[in-house]
Amino acid sequence: MSAEQSNNIILRADGVTKRFPLRSKGLLRRTTGWIDAVNDVSLEVRERETLGLVGESGCGKSTLGRVLLRLLNADAGTIEFAGRDITNLRGKDLRRMRRDMQIVFQDPSSSLNPRHQVGAIIAAPLEIHRYGSKAEIADRVAELLELVGLRPEHARRYPHEFSGGQRQRIGVARALALNPRLVIADEPVSALDVSIQAQIVNLLADLQEQLDLTYVFIAHDLAVVRQISDRVAVMYLGRIVELGPSLKVCDRPAHHYTNALLSAVPIPEVESVTRRERIVLRGDVPSLANPPSGCPFHPRCPAATSICAIDRPPLVPRTADSGEHLVACHHPL
Fold it and tell me: Would the pTM of this model clear 0.85, i.e. be above it?
Protein backbone atom coordinates (compact mmCIF):
# COMPACT_ATOMS: atom_id res chain seq x y z
CA MET A 1 0.00 0.00 0.00
CA SER A 2 1.51 3.30 -1.09
CA ALA A 3 1.80 6.38 1.07
CA GLU A 4 -0.81 8.06 -1.13
CA GLN A 5 -3.41 5.34 -0.53
CA SER A 6 -6.82 6.67 0.39
CA ASN A 7 -8.24 6.00 3.85
CA ASN A 8 -11.79 6.00 2.44
CA ILE A 9 -13.78 2.93 3.43
CA ILE A 10 -15.03 1.10 0.32
CA LEU A 11 -16.49 -1.95 2.08
CA ARG A 12 -17.90 -2.24 5.57
CA ALA A 13 -19.45 -5.26 7.28
CA ASP A 14 -21.21 -4.86 10.63
CA GLY A 15 -22.30 -7.88 12.66
CA VAL A 16 -22.56 -10.14 9.61
CA THR A 17 -23.80 -13.67 10.29
CA LYS A 18 -24.47 -16.51 7.86
CA ARG A 19 -26.22 -19.70 8.98
CA PHE A 20 -26.74 -23.00 7.21
CA PRO A 21 -29.31 -25.62 8.27
CA LEU A 22 -28.39 -29.12 9.39
CA ARG A 23 -30.89 -31.52 7.90
CA SER A 24 -31.76 -35.08 8.84
CA LYS A 25 -31.39 -37.94 6.41
CA GLY A 26 -34.38 -39.46 4.73
CA LEU A 27 -37.32 -38.25 2.71
CA LEU A 28 -38.51 -35.41 4.93
CA ARG A 29 -35.09 -33.81 5.48
CA ARG A 30 -36.13 -32.00 8.66
CA THR A 31 -33.96 -29.19 10.01
CA THR A 32 -32.23 -30.51 13.13
CA GLY A 33 -29.93 -27.61 13.87
CA TRP A 34 -27.93 -24.72 12.48
CA ILE A 35 -24.30 -23.98 11.65
CA ASP A 36 -23.08 -20.41 12.03
CA ALA A 37 -20.43 -20.44 9.30
CA VAL A 38 -19.90 -16.69 9.81
CA ASN A 39 -20.73 -15.34 13.25
CA ASP A 40 -21.06 -11.63 14.06
CA VAL A 41 -18.19 -10.44 11.84
CA SER A 42 -17.41 -6.73 11.56
CA LEU A 43 -14.62 -5.31 9.40
CA GLU A 44 -13.72 -2.47 7.07
CA VAL A 45 -11.77 -2.44 3.81
CA ARG A 46 -10.16 0.76 2.57
CA GLU A 47 -9.83 1.82 -1.02
CA ARG A 48 -6.73 0.48 -2.82
CA GLU A 49 -5.64 -1.73 0.08
CA THR A 50 -5.39 -5.50 0.37
CA LEU A 51 -7.06 -7.10 3.36
CA GLY A 52 -5.85 -10.65 3.92
CA LEU A 53 -8.40 -13.07 5.37
CA VAL A 54 -6.68 -16.12 6.81
CA GLY A 55 -7.58 -19.24 8.76
CA GLU A 56 -7.81 -23.01 8.62
CA SER A 57 -10.09 -24.77 6.14
CA GLY A 58 -13.68 -24.59 7.33
CA CYS A 59 -13.26 -21.44 9.41
CA GLY A 60 -15.79 -19.50 7.29
CA LYS A 61 -13.50 -17.22 5.29
CA SER A 62 -14.78 -18.25 1.83
CA THR A 63 -18.38 -18.03 3.06
CA LEU A 64 -17.67 -14.52 4.35
CA GLY A 65 -16.23 -13.55 0.96
CA ARG A 66 -19.38 -14.71 -0.81
CA VAL A 67 -21.61 -12.93 1.68
CA LEU A 68 -19.68 -9.68 1.17
CA LEU A 69 -20.23 -10.05 -2.59
CA ARG A 70 -23.91 -10.87 -2.06
CA LEU A 71 -23.47 -14.26 -3.71
CA LEU A 72 -24.95 -15.46 -0.42
CA ASN A 73 -27.43 -13.47 1.64
CA ALA A 74 -26.50 -12.57 5.21
CA ASP A 75 -28.87 -13.78 7.93
CA ALA A 76 -27.95 -10.86 10.19
CA GLY A 77 -25.90 -7.69 10.03
CA THR A 78 -25.33 -5.12 7.30
CA ILE A 79 -22.95 -4.69 4.37
CA GLU A 80 -22.07 -1.33 2.85
CA PHE A 81 -20.21 -0.80 -0.41
CA ALA A 82 -19.00 2.66 -1.43
CA GLY A 83 -21.22 4.21 1.25
CA ARG A 84 -24.37 2.36 0.15
CA ASP A 85 -26.17 -0.34 2.10
CA ILE A 86 -26.24 -3.36 -0.21
CA THR A 87 -27.49 -5.91 2.34
CA ASN A 88 -30.91 -6.25 0.74
CA LEU A 89 -30.30 -5.14 -2.84
CA ARG A 90 -32.32 -7.03 -5.44
CA GLY A 91 -32.84 -7.12 -9.19
CA LYS A 92 -31.36 -4.40 -11.35
CA ASP A 93 -29.72 -2.60 -8.43
CA LEU A 94 -27.84 -5.77 -7.47
CA ARG A 95 -26.74 -6.41 -11.08
CA ARG A 96 -25.40 -2.87 -11.37
CA MET A 97 -23.47 -3.29 -8.15
CA ARG A 98 -21.82 -6.45 -9.50
CA ARG A 99 -19.91 -4.36 -12.05
CA ASP A 100 -17.88 -2.95 -9.16
CA MET A 101 -17.43 -6.16 -7.13
CA GLN A 102 -15.93 -9.30 -8.66
CA ILE A 103 -14.36 -12.57 -7.53
CA VAL A 104 -11.43 -14.77 -8.54
CA PHE A 105 -12.21 -18.37 -7.61
CA GLN A 106 -9.87 -20.89 -6.04
CA ASP A 107 -9.76 -23.59 -8.71
CA PRO A 108 -9.50 -22.31 -12.30
CA SER A 109 -10.13 -25.83 -13.62
CA SER A 110 -13.67 -25.87 -12.23
CA SER A 111 -14.49 -22.15 -12.53
CA LEU A 112 -13.91 -21.99 -16.31
CA ASN A 113 -16.46 -23.63 -18.60
CA PRO A 114 -14.53 -26.34 -20.52
CA ARG A 115 -16.94 -26.11 -23.46
CA HIS A 116 -16.32 -22.42 -24.10
CA GLN A 117 -13.35 -20.76 -25.70
CA VAL A 118 -11.39 -18.39 -23.51
CA GLY A 119 -12.61 -15.38 -25.47
CA ALA A 120 -16.23 -16.29 -24.76
CA ILE A 121 -15.48 -16.85 -21.07
CA ILE A 122 -13.92 -13.41 -20.64
CA ALA A 123 -16.57 -11.77 -22.83
CA ALA A 124 -19.50 -13.18 -20.80
CA PRO A 125 -19.67 -10.36 -18.20
CA LEU A 126 -19.22 -7.77 -20.96
CA GLU A 127 -22.18 -9.19 -22.86
CA ILE A 128 -24.36 -9.49 -19.76
CA HIS A 129 -23.75 -5.83 -18.89
CA ARG A 130 -23.97 -4.68 -22.54
CA TYR A 131 -20.46 -3.30 -22.75
CA GLY A 132 -20.67 -2.46 -26.46
CA SER A 133 -20.64 -3.91 -29.96
CA LYS A 134 -19.11 -7.29 -30.81
CA ALA A 135 -16.01 -5.55 -32.14
CA GLU A 136 -15.63 -3.50 -28.96
CA ILE A 137 -16.03 -6.61 -26.81
CA ALA A 138 -13.42 -8.47 -28.89
CA ASP A 139 -11.00 -5.57 -28.46
CA ARG A 140 -11.62 -5.53 -24.72
CA VAL A 141 -10.99 -9.29 -24.49
CA ALA A 142 -7.67 -8.91 -26.33
CA GLU A 143 -6.71 -6.04 -24.02
CA LEU A 144 -7.52 -8.10 -20.92
CA LEU A 145 -5.53 -11.10 -22.14
CA GLU A 146 -2.48 -8.92 -22.64
CA LEU A 147 -3.06 -7.29 -19.26
CA VAL A 148 -2.70 -10.64 -17.49
CA GLY A 149 0.32 -11.78 -19.49
CA LEU A 150 -1.37 -13.83 -22.23
CA ARG A 151 -1.66 -13.25 -25.98
CA PRO A 152 -4.78 -12.07 -27.88
CA GLU A 153 -4.76 -15.22 -30.04
CA HIS A 154 -5.31 -17.27 -26.87
CA ALA A 155 -8.95 -16.16 -27.05
CA ARG A 156 -9.62 -18.97 -29.55
CA ARG A 157 -8.33 -21.75 -27.29
CA TYR A 158 -10.13 -23.82 -24.66
CA PRO A 159 -9.26 -23.90 -20.93
CA HIS A 160 -7.78 -27.42 -21.08
CA GLU A 161 -5.10 -26.15 -23.45
CA PHE A 162 -3.58 -23.99 -20.70
CA SER A 163 -1.54 -24.70 -17.59
CA GLY A 164 -3.00 -24.12 -14.13
CA GLY A 165 -1.26 -20.77 -13.78
CA GLN A 166 -2.48 -19.64 -17.19
CA ARG A 167 -6.04 -20.69 -16.36
CA GLN A 168 -5.90 -18.59 -13.21
CA ARG A 169 -4.74 -15.63 -15.32
CA ILE A 170 -7.84 -16.15 -17.44
CA GLY A 171 -9.94 -16.09 -14.27
CA VAL A 172 -8.29 -12.83 -13.28
CA ALA A 173 -8.96 -11.37 -16.73
CA ARG A 174 -12.65 -12.29 -16.45
CA ALA A 175 -12.87 -10.66 -13.01
CA LEU A 176 -11.33 -7.44 -14.36
CA ALA A 177 -13.50 -7.24 -17.50
CA LEU A 178 -15.90 -4.63 -16.10
CA ASN A 179 -13.26 -2.50 -14.36
CA PRO A 180 -14.34 -3.40 -10.81
CA ARG A 181 -13.30 -1.41 -7.77
CA LEU A 182 -13.18 -4.43 -5.43
CA VAL A 183 -11.93 -7.95 -6.16
CA ILE A 184 -12.32 -10.82 -3.70
CA ALA A 185 -9.62 -13.40 -4.40
CA ASP A 186 -10.78 -16.69 -2.86
CA GLU A 187 -7.59 -18.71 -2.32
CA PRO A 188 -6.43 -17.89 -5.87
CA VAL A 189 -3.07 -19.67 -5.55
CA SER A 190 -3.80 -22.66 -3.30
CA ALA A 191 -4.51 -24.96 -6.27
CA LEU A 192 -1.26 -23.99 -8.02
CA ASP A 193 2.30 -25.25 -7.83
CA VAL A 194 4.52 -23.30 -5.45
CA SER A 195 6.65 -22.11 -8.38
CA ILE A 196 3.55 -20.56 -10.00
CA GLN A 197 2.03 -19.06 -6.86
CA ALA A 198 4.54 -16.20 -6.70
CA GLN A 199 3.81 -15.29 -10.33
CA ILE A 200 0.07 -14.94 -9.66
CA VAL A 201 0.64 -13.01 -6.44
CA ASN A 202 3.01 -10.63 -8.26
CA LEU A 203 0.49 -10.27 -11.10
CA LEU A 204 -2.26 -9.30 -8.64
CA ALA A 205 0.04 -6.77 -6.97
CA ASP A 206 0.97 -5.22 -10.32
CA LEU A 207 -2.66 -5.03 -11.42
CA GLN A 208 -3.62 -3.38 -8.14
CA GLU A 209 -1.07 -0.64 -8.74
CA GLN A 210 -2.08 -0.15 -12.38
CA LEU A 211 -5.85 -0.19 -11.88
CA ASP A 212 -6.26 1.16 -8.32
CA LEU A 213 -7.91 -2.07 -7.20
CA THR A 214 -8.99 -3.06 -3.72
CA TYR A 215 -8.53 -6.71 -2.71
CA VAL A 216 -9.89 -9.04 -0.09
CA PHE A 217 -7.34 -11.86 -0.36
CA ILE A 218 -8.55 -15.13 1.19
CA ALA A 219 -5.95 -17.79 2.01
CA HIS A 220 -4.88 -20.32 4.59
CA ASP A 221 -1.16 -19.65 4.01
CA LEU A 222 0.08 -16.78 6.19
CA ALA A 223 3.31 -16.54 4.20
CA VAL A 224 1.36 -15.65 1.04
CA VAL A 225 -0.97 -13.32 2.94
CA ARG A 226 1.96 -11.47 4.50
CA GLN A 227 3.51 -10.92 1.08
CA ILE A 228 0.51 -9.24 -0.52
CA SER A 229 -1.62 -7.84 2.31
CA ASP A 230 -1.62 -4.45 4.01
CA ARG A 231 -3.81 -5.70 6.85
CA VAL A 232 -4.67 -9.20 8.03
CA ALA A 233 -7.84 -10.59 9.60
CA VAL A 234 -7.49 -14.01 11.26
CA MET A 235 -10.65 -16.16 11.45
CA TYR A 236 -11.44 -19.08 13.73
CA LEU A 237 -14.78 -20.90 13.82
CA GLY A 238 -16.59 -18.16 11.93
CA ARG A 239 -15.25 -15.25 14.00
CA ILE A 240 -12.41 -12.77 13.56
CA VAL A 241 -9.97 -13.27 16.43
CA GLU A 242 -7.23 -10.86 15.34
CA LEU A 243 -7.10 -7.92 12.93
CA GLY A 244 -4.34 -5.46 12.22
CA PRO A 245 -1.50 -4.28 9.98
CA SER A 246 0.18 -7.20 8.26
CA LEU A 247 3.64 -6.64 9.70
CA LYS A 248 2.35 -6.26 13.25
CA VAL A 249 0.14 -9.34 13.10
CA CYS A 250 2.84 -11.49 11.49
CA ASP A 251 5.83 -10.23 13.46
CA ARG A 252 4.16 -9.82 16.85
CA PRO A 253 0.87 -11.74 16.95
CA ALA A 254 -1.50 -11.04 19.81
CA HIS A 255 -3.71 -14.12 19.61
CA HIS A 256 -2.49 -17.60 20.49
CA TYR A 257 -4.19 -19.05 17.40
CA THR A 258 -2.36 -16.61 15.11
CA ASN A 259 0.88 -17.52 16.85
CA ALA A 260 0.24 -21.21 16.15
CA LEU A 261 -0.50 -20.52 12.48
CA LEU A 262 2.73 -18.54 12.15
CA SER A 263 4.76 -21.28 13.77
CA ALA A 264 3.76 -23.58 10.89
CA VAL A 265 5.04 -21.21 8.17
CA PRO A 266 8.19 -22.69 6.57
CA ILE A 267 11.31 -20.54 6.97
CA PRO A 268 14.37 -20.90 4.70
CA GLU A 269 17.36 -22.62 6.27
CA VAL A 270 19.39 -19.41 6.09
CA GLU A 271 16.90 -17.86 8.51
CA SER A 272 16.87 -20.81 10.88
CA VAL A 273 18.39 -18.70 13.66
CA THR A 274 15.11 -16.81 13.93
CA ARG A 275 12.90 -19.83 13.35
CA ARG A 276 9.79 -19.91 15.53
CA GLU A 277 9.25 -22.85 17.82
CA ARG A 278 6.56 -25.08 16.27
CA ILE A 279 3.35 -24.93 18.26
CA VAL A 280 1.16 -28.04 18.13
CA LEU A 281 -2.38 -27.29 19.24
CA ARG A 282 -4.15 -29.87 21.36
CA GLY A 283 -7.34 -31.49 20.16
CA ASP A 284 -9.21 -30.94 16.92
CA VAL A 285 -11.13 -27.99 15.54
CA PRO A 286 -14.56 -28.04 17.27
CA SER A 287 -17.71 -28.60 15.23
CA LEU A 288 -19.56 -25.51 14.05
CA ALA A 289 -22.75 -27.39 14.87
CA ASN A 290 -21.76 -27.44 18.54
CA PRO A 291 -19.25 -24.63 19.14
CA PRO A 292 -17.59 -24.14 22.53
CA SER A 293 -18.96 -21.61 24.99
CA GLY A 294 -17.04 -18.42 25.69
CA CYS A 295 -13.94 -17.99 23.53
CA PRO A 296 -14.23 -20.45 20.62
CA PHE A 297 -10.50 -21.19 20.82
CA HIS A 298 -10.33 -21.95 24.54
CA PRO A 299 -10.42 -25.81 24.29
CA ARG A 300 -7.15 -25.70 22.30
CA CYS A 301 -5.50 -22.61 23.81
CA PRO A 302 -2.36 -23.08 25.94
CA ALA A 303 -3.20 -19.95 27.96
CA ALA A 304 -6.89 -20.63 28.62
CA THR A 305 -8.33 -20.04 32.10
CA SER A 306 -11.82 -20.43 33.54
CA ILE A 307 -13.03 -17.06 32.21
CA CYS A 308 -12.25 -18.17 28.65
CA ALA A 309 -14.90 -20.89 28.86
CA ILE A 310 -17.52 -18.44 30.12
CA ASP A 311 -17.13 -15.07 28.40
CA ARG A 312 -16.54 -14.51 24.70
CA PRO A 313 -13.85 -11.81 24.41
CA PRO A 314 -14.70 -8.83 22.19
CA LEU A 315 -12.44 -7.67 19.37
CA VAL A 316 -10.65 -4.70 20.97
CA PRO A 317 -7.28 -2.92 20.66
CA ARG A 318 -4.42 -5.06 21.91
CA THR A 319 -3.26 -2.26 24.18
CA ALA A 320 -4.45 1.26 24.83
CA ASP A 321 -1.93 2.64 22.32
CA SER A 322 -2.02 -0.22 19.76
CA GLY A 323 -4.42 1.58 17.43
CA GLU A 324 -5.55 -0.72 14.64
CA HIS A 325 -4.14 -3.95 16.06
CA LEU A 326 -7.25 -5.68 17.46
CA VAL A 327 -7.52 -9.01 19.24
CA ALA A 328 -10.33 -11.08 20.76
CA CYS A 329 -8.53 -12.73 23.69
CA HIS A 330 -8.69 -12.53 27.48
CA HIS A 331 -4.94 -13.28 27.70
CA PRO A 332 -3.26 -11.80 24.59
CA LEU A 333 0.41 -12.39 23.93
Answer: yes
